[in-house]
Amino acid sequence: MDKSAKTVAVGLSGGVDSALTAWTLQQQGYNVIGITMALWDGSIDMPVIEGRSGCFGPNEGESIEAAEKVAKRLSIPFHVVPVVEEYKKNVLDYFRAEYRAGRTPNPCVRCNQSIKFGAMLHFVESPGHFQGPVLFPFPVNRRPAFVGAFPAGRNAQGRSQGTGP
Q1: Domains of the chain by start residue, with CATH
Q2: Which of 6, 90, 126, 135 could cysteine-pair with 114, CB 3.0–4.6 Å?
């Protein structure tokens, strides 16, 4: 199958690495779609700190806007994937439990496993979101490393993923 027939979902953060990944794949003839995750629902009282951002918190809107600007600049479709409940259950609850038990939690590792390559990949694989094969790139050492190359709606074993979120 030629590259022009493939659709690539790129996790956009609004930063240089993900923007360059999307642009490079676009230049190579892929149909690129930008996706980013929405983690914040405002249910936790946290102050807005100017000039400081993270992946979770009241400044999330700025990160989503930055990712959307990249998508518009590249003229690619853009989707925000709501993963608030999954994040609370798999990352925040884990963090609290580990902290209360006197252990040092690592929320980033948990998020990568359950959200970035769990809920986000499930969204990309779900029928109805994208037509044709989908690749999900993850920047490693500033180069995209593909963690999945599945026909839309199928998992790595070729089985149907159901109806999706």
Answers
A1: 3-151 (3.40.50.620)
A2: 90
